[in-house]
Amino acid sequence: MTTTDTQVTAPSLPVTDLYAKLLRNEPLFILDVRNAEDFKRWGVEGRSALEVVNLPYYDFIEDEEGSIARVPADRDILVICAKEGASQYVAELLQGQGIQAAYLEGGIASWGNFYDIRDVVNKPSGRIVQIARPARGDLSFMVISDGVAAIVDPLRHIEYYLTVAQEANVTIKEIFDTHIHADHISGGPALAQRLGVPYYVHAYDAIHPIDMLPAKIDYHHLVDGQTFTIGQFSLKVVWFPGHTLGQVNYLFTAPDGDSYLFTGDGIFLSSFGRPDLGGKGETWTPMLYQSMFERLPQHITDDTMILPAHFSHLDEGGDNGLFVEPFGTVRQQNDGLKPRTLEEFTSYVLGHLPVFPPEYVEIKRVNIGLTIPNEEQASELELGKNICALSNA
Ligand SMILES: [Fe+2]
Ligand SMILES: [Fe+2]
Q1: Which of 4, 210, 221, 376 has a Cα-to-Cα distance from 359 of 20 to 30 A?
Q2: CATH no. for residue 222?
Q3: Does residue 359 surpass a pLDDT of 70?
Q4: pTM for this entry
Q5: pLDDT tens readout for residues 206-258
Q6: What pLDDT score was predicted for residue 336?
């Protein structure tokens, strides 16, 4: 039995709608028709575990009847493939059998490149905009006040930042990276070059930690305690070595006294940045300990809002799609921030280090201008979810 000659159509699901469903934690049954290797590398993740079955496309069409029998007939099915074609075909086959099936518009590639933009703060004194790439768990921010803007940890697709600035009718004045990233390609140097504005990073991160080669990008080096003004917001640089030697946190204070700490890969909402991606995990762990337990508390209060550069799980954020919590809440819910002696902390860290993706060494080279990838290489380097946090932490 085949259904290939029937004229059945299947609806497509745009990635924006998929994200809305994931945030609402709607039950989803995903039929992923990518090959087993790609399926294993990464996929769509929800606030809680999704029901996912992998039936590779070529296996599926080789035995259509048997494959269709493995798909629950009483569920709404979302079929996903690499780029769309195969999943559309399979969704139509399922529809032809009376199974409610849609396919993901643009395939997993579109999901991987999807950006979600929403306000964290919107007051007369200014806005903080969260610009997220949910499939990767990457977060970046734009602070807007009195017609000017600063960007923190911009991601590779810089057009989104230019659009936000254009729609708000503001001028981007500074680009800040919290550190030289290992898991994704920064949009910082490209944005700075495009706009003719300074790109800031701590000088300790401008040397590749493995190659020991200096950066070839144009950057302005930051100093601990350095201050800036962005409209009505003040900004203080808080050096936070540990994840990298030059990791900094950016402490923004609004005129009403509310404060916002952009932590990069310092502390996350339910974990913190691993100290081993420079190849010296054991050596850097005591520095991370000092940063977390001695340096950071000097600069913030329980009311300071924490805005990290990553999440590991979608449920770290609210169903409003925002990944921000007051430090007081983070302290309570984040196992990594529980009081420990240095010895306890060291064994905790070294016992929870996830796999070190080999491409992370190359991504750091890209981020300091030592190598320049083409689009295909850049997208391959950034495939899948970030692994910047400690595992199970
Ligand atoms: Fe990082
Ligand atoms: Fe990261």
Answers
A1: 221
A2: 3.60.15.10
A3: yes
A4: 0.96
A5: 999 999 999 999 999 999 999 999 999 999 999 999 999 999 999 999 999 99
A6: 94
User: To which residue do tokens 């329980």 refer?
Assistant: 302
Domain of 51, in residue numbers: 12-111
What is the C-alpha to C-alpha distance for residues 391 and 393, in angstroms, rounded to an integer? 5
d(CA 383, CA 361): 15
Supply the mean pLDDT for the chain. 96
Question: Between helices 342-350 and 281-290, what is the axis angle to 10°?
Answer: 130
Task: Establish if 389 belongs to a structural domain.
Answer: no
Q: Which of 75, 93, 111 is the last residue of a domain?
A: 111
Cα(343) to centroid(ligand 2), Å: 25
Cα(215)–Cα(265) distance, integer angstroms: 20
- What would the two tokens of residue 133 be? 């790439």
Query: What average pLDDT score do residues 308-334 get?
Result: 96
Summarize pLDDT for 150-161 with one digit per residue, the tens. 999 999 999 999
Distance (angstroms) between ligand 1 centre and the Cα of 104 equals: 30
149 forms beta bridges with 144, 172
Residue among 215, 159, 149, 144 at smallest CA distance from 191: 159
Could you say which of 81, 93, 267, 296 is catalytic? 81
81 assigned to active site: yes
Which-ligand-closest: CA of 312? 2
Two structure tokens written together for 260: 């916002």
Please tell me the number of the ligand nearest to residue 309's CA: 2
**Count of other CB atoms within 10 angstroms of residue 298:** 7
CA 230/CA 250 separation, integer angstroms = 12
